[in-house]
Amino acid sequence: MSYNGVNLKSSISIGKIYSIHYFEYMNDFSFEGEAHNFWEFICVDKGEVGVTAGRNFSVLKKRDILFHQPNEFHNVKATGTIAPNLVVISFDCHDTAMSFFRKGIFKIDDLEQNLLANIINEAKQCFDCRLDDPYLQNMPQKESLLFGSEQMILNYLEQFLIHIIRRYSAPVIPSLNIIPFSGLTSNCKNGAELFSRITDYLEKNINNHLTIEQICHDNLIGRSQLQKVLKEHCGLGIIEYFSHMKINAAKEMIRTQSMNFTQVSETLGYTSIHYFSRRFKKETGMTPSEYASSIKAMAEAKF
């Protein structure tokens, strides 16, 4: 018997990667702008920014994404009210399908958001540099501890672009009849729903001091079940996870520059500024003032 193999067509193939960044900017950040001969997109994870693309100016908000085509002048600046978090990725791609992204502003969905998160996580494994430096022009590679990290970046990015085109080109196509993974039991689904409910509760109580007993009482859940759900979904204990959330909220408040460190500490329910500073340094490796000055210095640097 003779077999004939099939050469599968690639609709989008990524060439070189020039930058993969996740930025946490101050609310007064401003980048003067540039133009280069490769594609770049900017996606807002938190807050909002004003973006110039050629002659057009737009304000991008959470989950908005805008593509800059090769040789298009572009700049970005914070709007002055909300400290933005941004994903910026630039790359080579010469496929005709890329012309689709000249249409304007898109909004990413949950799958696309997860793909971006995967790209950032893989980039941390295979590039020997900070991903939050907006003035970095080269990304030195390093030997990744995870097999296939560089290839996974390409795979995730190509899937990300294809998924956007599919979703906006044919939104009425019925979903594929995919056989669910056998491990996705109803218990897993219930666990995901419970984890989502717990995180929503923690978000609403971010300014309070919570105990495990209070969390269990307010959510009608046993202590062992609570800890099991947290371990399965994030690998942390509930108090450690809540501490991470508080420090992330503190970082955003610091970047917004609307409160001093004592006010941030009090707003988030810490017992003292000294305890807040210790927790902040344990989480980030920097004191609150060191964090503020390092981000600010980066934001005010000249390109």
Give the C-level CATH assignment of the largest domain: Mainly Beta
**Fraction in helix:** 40-55%
**What's the N-to-C terminus distance?**
63 Å
Number of helices: 9
Mean pLDDT: 88
* CATH architecture tag of the largest domain: Sandwich
CATH superfamily of the largest domain: Regulatory protein AraC
Q: What value does the Rg take, in angstroms?
A: 22 Å
Helix-strand makeup class:
alpha+beta
> Which fold name corresponds to the CATH topology of the largest domain?
Jelly Rolls
Number of domains: 2
Q: Largest sheet at a glance?
A: 5 strands, antiparallel
Proportion in β-strands: 15-25%
Structure description:
The chain is of the alpha+beta class and 303 residues long. It folds into 2 domains: 17-169, Jelly Rolls (Sandwich); 186-300, Orthogonal Bundle (Arc Repressor Mutant, subunit A), CATH 1.10.10.60. The chain has 9 helices and 9 strands. It has helices at residues 110-126, 149-169, 186-204, 212-219, 223-234, 238-256, 261-267, 273-284, 288-300, and strands at 17-24, 30-34, 39-46, 48-53, 56-61, 64-68, 74-78, 85-91, 105-107. The strands form 2 sheets. A 5-stranded antiparallel β-sheet has the order 1-8-3-6-9, with helices on one face. Strands 2-7-4-5 form a 4-stranded antiparallel β-sheet, with no helix packed on it. A hairpin with a 2-residue loop joins strand 4 (48-53) and strand 5. Helix 1 runs antiparallel to helix 2 and helix 6 crosses helix 8. The longest helix is centred in the middle third of the chain and has 21 residues, at 149-169. It is globular. The termini are far apart. Mean pLDDT is 88; it is low at 172-188.
